[in-house]
């Protein structure tokens, strides 16, 4: 037993020594990026899938749990693959040109996005829409910082909030099919289901009364 423990400690020391080697830093960063992508994807998707599944999806408990597991796995896998691809391409470009330039990041992410997130499915669609909203805000702030547009004299956020809510509710009321299914479900729950009730039970306690009731 003691020999086995000594071997493990020696292996651990060797692994730690390897991790301290600067010449392997780029390759090791790619591997850790894969790890962090997988973990972060699972942390983000699992609670979201849990809430959305139990709020809006029908089916047995087993079917719901399977759906949650599949969504969590897909998000975790895709994010891990993307980080791995992005950091690998970034390191390769830096190695080839001898330095890192801003275009490297854009090109590596474009290739990773095409390869990993190019499939039009619900998980990828949600991720892209999440990023798109952040990009719009980020580019707007960058345009002000660079002087391409003047600094607003008043906070433009109230106007943005008004336009976003006005547009999304107009789309929901008159062009619902253009919205993402999960957003349709949320808005149906908020704005349509609140129009229907039969008695106190489905007015305050339940959203909808079942046939048995």
TrEMBL record:
Pfam families: Tim17 (PF02466). InterPro entries: Pmp4. One of its GO terms (cellular component) is peroxisomal membrane. This is PXMP4 protein. It comes from Alaudala cheleensis.
């Amino acid at each position: 037993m003691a020999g086995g423990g000594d071997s493990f400690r020696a292996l651990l020391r060797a692994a730690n020594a390897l991790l301290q080697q600067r010449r392997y830093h780029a390759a090791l960063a790619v591997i850790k990026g894969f790890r962090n992508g997988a973990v972060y994807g699972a942390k983000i998707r699992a609670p979201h899938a849990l809430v959305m599944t139990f709020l809006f999806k029908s089916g047995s408990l087993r079917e719901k749990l399977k759906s949650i597991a599949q969504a969590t796995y897909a998000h975790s896998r895709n994010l891990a693959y993307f980080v791995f691809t992005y950091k690998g391409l970034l390191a390769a470009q830096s190695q080839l040109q001898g330095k890192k330039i801003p275009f490297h990041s854009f090109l590596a992410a474009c290739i990773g996005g095409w390869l990993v997130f190019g499939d039009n499915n619900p998980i990828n669609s949600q991720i892209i829409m999440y990023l798109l909203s952040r990009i719009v805000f980020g580019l707007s702030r960058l345009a002000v910082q660079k002087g391409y547009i003047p600094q607003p004299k008043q906070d433009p956020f109230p106007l943005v909030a008004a336009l976003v809510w006005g547009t999304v509710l107009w789309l929901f009321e008159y062009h619902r099919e253009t919205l993402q299914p999960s957003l349709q479900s949320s808005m149906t729950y908020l704005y349509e289901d609140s129009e229907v009730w039969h008695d106190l039970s489905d007015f305050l306690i339940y959203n909808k009364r079942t046939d048995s009731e």
